[in-house]
Structures are given as structure tokens and as C-alpha cells.
Amino acid sequence: MKAVQNNGGEDLASLNERLFVPRTAPNFLIVGAARSGTTSLWHWLRQHPQVFMPRYKEPAFFVHNFGVFTQEEYLSLFNPGRGKACIGEASTAYLSAPESPPWIHELLGKIKIMAILRNPVDRAYSMYCWLAMIGLEPLETFEEAIAQESRRMTSLPFQQNCLIASHNYQYFHAGLYIEKIKPYIKIFGADRVKMLLFDDLKKNPAGFCAEVCEFLEISQANGHAFRSENGAVIPRSTPLQFRLRAMRTRTRKVMGMSHLSITSWYVLAMLINKARGARKPMSAAIRAQLVEQYRPSVEELSDLLHRDLSYWLK
After folding, report:
1. Peptide bond preceding 147: is omega within 30 degrees of 0, i.e. cis?
2. Residue 20: partners with Cβ closer than 8 Å, 6 or more residues away
3. Residue 192 scores a pLDDT above 60
4. pLDDT over 50 (residue 215)
5. In terms of Cα–Cα distance, which of 47, 53, 171, 162 is closest to 114?
């Protein structure tokens, strides 16, 4: 007996199998913090035989007005992971975006959440250097960026015109980890939220790896594959880097991909500006200011983690 077929020539048995295979969705997320080793962890987990993470890092689906995927497109990212014990993704904006925890829970249920936390003073400065390096920060000094942060957070035009999620410009506020992590603990439960430390990743990658594997309930694997990712320098001229990036983006939008030869000149100019830059240390004054502002949050986090983090305040 010949199989019944639909109009496209596909038999109904095949159609049913294709349409009604259970959807594969993430059962864990790395939610941040930005500039704290999430890229290193993402690279390492992608090598683990029991883990699937899509090649596309930072899909940021659970952030309003930023994610580029529809829900269907987002979930389809994980279809190749069918059969893996752990399926996940890494989007650092989820730690700062207040809408992320309830939205994640609504779509994915009580999945596991991981966050890597770094000395918030160092993290803030590293974030500024990275955005300046890639041409997304027009302000010439870290001090100015810190001073402008509150205004930026309340400026609708600024938030609407960002080329990346506006939360990335929360240099200081993103480091108030205790207020960022509490919603995750409340929604998902303390046993399903794992807070890791960037210091452990740097000093003891094997132990850090063991913590991750235990939390995800996967086989132990060596952490020697961890490597430093996304090192940042401040370009010679931060405003110039920003203008070059803006011109490159505008040219590509107006002229399309057929004018890559023009946009490549902007890329080359950005590379030269970056090469003439340097790893500039943070000023002692701004470090002292931030240490005192972070002190209450760090002390509360120490209590929550049962870890002495007083060295972050020196």
C-alpha cells in the first residue's frame, strides 16, 4: 500500500516525525558576569562530550529590545544538541537585565543557572576597556564613563541607539552582584544557581572545572584547556575608534555588503588605532572610590558564598 502524501510529496509519516519530534531546549544557562571568564567557560564546555552549546555566543534572547532571534529561531539553535546530557548557552546580559530571570523561567522552567563573578572594580574597568577597544564607547576616560552611567541608565535615546545591550554600559551597577543574583535564587532556588569565582578560574582551573562538572552532573574533565579570552586594550583615541565603528556600520547599512572594500578601510584604521593603544592601569583615585561603593555588596556576597572576599576591597 502506497503511503499517503501531502501536496509537497512528503509522506504523512515522515511529516509527522519531522513536526512532532520533542523540541530540544536549554537546561542550563551561563548568565554572566561580562568580562569575568564566561567566554573561556563557553569555549571549554563546547569541547565536553556531554555538553552542547551553539557556536553563537550571546544570543541574548531574554533581553528586551536586543535579541535578534524569534522564539522559534532561538529554540532551533539547540536542535543539534538532541541527546546531550547538558544543553545551554551563554549571554552575559542576563545577569544585569531585570526581565531575564522571570522570562527564562517562563519559557525554560527551573533550569540550572551559572554565573562567574569577578572583583567588581576590575570587571568594571575591563568592560570599559573592551567597549573602547571595539569602538562602542565614545567617552575618553573611565572616570567620565562612571560619572555618566546614571544618566545613561535613564536616557531612552541612549538605550534605543546602543549597538549592544545598554546594560553593558552599567560599569558600576553591573558589579552589584548581590542584587543581580537574588532574583535568580528566588525564582530557580539556591540549589540550581551556581556562583563561581573568576579568581578560581585563573588560579585553579582544574578545581574550577570540577565545580562546573559537579553542578551540571557530567563527567569530570581536565581544565587545562581553559585559555585567556577577549583581552582588551584602550586604543590611542577612544573617540576616533567610536567614530570609525559608527562610519563602518553606517556604510554597511547604506551600501550593503557589496562595498566591503570601503568598510575594510575602517576596520584597518580601527586596528591601527588599537595597535597604538596600551593597557593603561586604572587610577588609584577611581579604584579607591569604587572599592568603598562596592563594600556593602561585596560583604553581603561574602556571607552568601561563605567565602572571604575582603581581598576585593584592597
Report:
1. no
2. none
3. yes
4. yes
5. 53
The number of beta carbons lying within 10 Å of the beta carbon of residue 215 is 18
- Tell me: pLDDT of 16 over 50: no
User: Please, which residues bridge with residue 5 across strands?
Assistant: 11
The pLDDT of residue 260: 55
Closest CA to 48 of 220, 197, 228, 204: 220
For residue 49, the domain's CATH number is 3.40.50.300
Whole-angstrom Cα distance, residue 313 to residue 67?
35
Any domain includes 242: no
pLDDT (mean) for 70-74: 94
Sign, CA dihedral 297-129-145-156, equals negative
Measured distance CA(127)–CA(165) in Å, rounded: 13
What are the angstrom distances between the C-alpha of 285 and each of 61, 108, 172, 282, 291? 38, 44, 15, 8, 10
- Residue 106 is predicted with a pLDDT of 97
Which grid cell sits at 181? 543574583
What pLDDT is stored for residue 257 in this prediction?
Answer: 52
Q: Residue 63 contacts by C-beta under 8 Å, 6 or more apart in sequence?
A: 91, 93, 94, 97, 99, 100, 165, 167
Residue 115: HSE in the Cβ half-sphere, 13 Å Cα cutoff: 27
* Number of domains the chain is built from: 1
130: in domain: yes
CA–CA separation, 25 and 269 (whole Å): 41
Cβ count near 241 (within 10 Å): 25
Looking at the DSSP bridge assignments, the partners of residue 208 are: none
Max mean pLDDT among 127-136, 228-237, 269-278 falls in 127-136
Q: Does residue 182 lie in a domain region?
A: yes
Q: What is the pLDDT of residues 35-55, one digit of tens each?
A: 999 999 999 999 999 999 999
